Amino acid sequence: MLKKTAPLLSSAALALALGTVSASADIMVGVLVPDSGPAGLFGPSTRNSAALAAEQINASGGINGEQIELVFADVGVPPAEAAQAALRLWKGEGVKAFVGMHDSAVREALIGRFNGQVPYVYTAVYEGKSCADGLYVTGETPSQQLEPVIPFLAEKEGVSKWYLIGHDYNWPRDTNALAKGYIADAGGEVVGEEYVPFTVSEFDSSLQRIKESGADAVLVTLVGGGSVGFNVSFAGFGLDDQAIRLGTLIEENTLAGIGADNANRLYSSSGYFASIETDMAASFAADYSKTFGSDAPALNGLGQSAYEGLMLLAALANKAGSLDVAAMDAAAEGTTWSTPRGENTLTGRHMAQTIYLADGSGGAFNVVASFDNVASSEACSN
Known about the structure:
40% of the residues lie in helices and 21% in strands. The protein is an alpha/beta fold and 382 residues long. It has two domains: 2-140 and 277-347, Response regulator (Rossmann fold); 144-270, 3-Layer(aba) Sandwich (Rossmann fold), CATH 3.40.50. Strands 6, 7, 8, 9, 10, 11, 12, 13 and 14 form a nine-stranded mixed β-sheet that branches. A five-stranded parallel β-sheet has the order 2-1-3-4-5, sandwiched between helices. β8 (217-221), α9 and β9 form a beta-alpha-beta unit. α3 (79-93) crosses α4. The longest helix is centred in the C-terminal third of the chain and has 20 residues, at 301-320. The termini are far apart.
């Protein structure tokens, strides 16, 4: 429900935000968003980005000539509840396809629930190697975010001693398993590795270990508030003079929480930043601001990924001529489309995309390098 104190939107923007993008839509698409829970921070920008994609898809002829309407569900809840919410949309409301920006546990629950019977585009950064009938992935995987970036930073910053710290679950552990190989290939070594529960909010002992390890680079795979707390304390310890930091889930909202004073020599690797200087990214940012206003939730890679996912869904379904899973699976390999992230290609059900490395020093991301058409080593075999 919109609060009465919320900024006023135009009637078009209000319709977009609520998902009613077509008064006589032929196809309903479910968009699964974390409106609650730890990732709730990304819900508003995800909704807006999805709604903008739907408007543009409809303006370009829709999916196989049919207009689409978005129906949203909150999946910032336990996986079983999220799966039930998706089931209600699918079986109860007649949703024909899904786009989801949420965590891996929810994804696996949805794969089991959908059982290859409905198209499902997953858009969040994740650990890779999730393969199922009807599943298509746009989110960055570890090989994309780290394989080109680690050797670049090793040369640019002259670093070789890496400390790995993340939350204790599969995404950080799987990311670091690959990172160790990239570090070794770049002539470096891992001088420490640790995983902390989500409940940890004090990092003094970890920071002391980093200091004593002699690390000159730290790979951060902490999530949300944990990442904010760690990075603030890292700077408070003066460790930003000792080591650079590289994050694979540090976007604009997280950087704002960390603050300019605590972001010295803090890097992030992502397929999208709001500061990307390309015609497509600039056009997207202008459309977003025009539609939702200057006070709209900040653009970021996670929120923007919902736009990416809907654009892939449309491109793939139009190529296949149908939303039938078998037809889409047959047409998937090599599907191409252009979005704010650049020229993208579906390879092994995953998105080969440009990867950007940005420096967050000063509290705003400045892109310092880009790596074109990076395919995922964690993609699916066809």
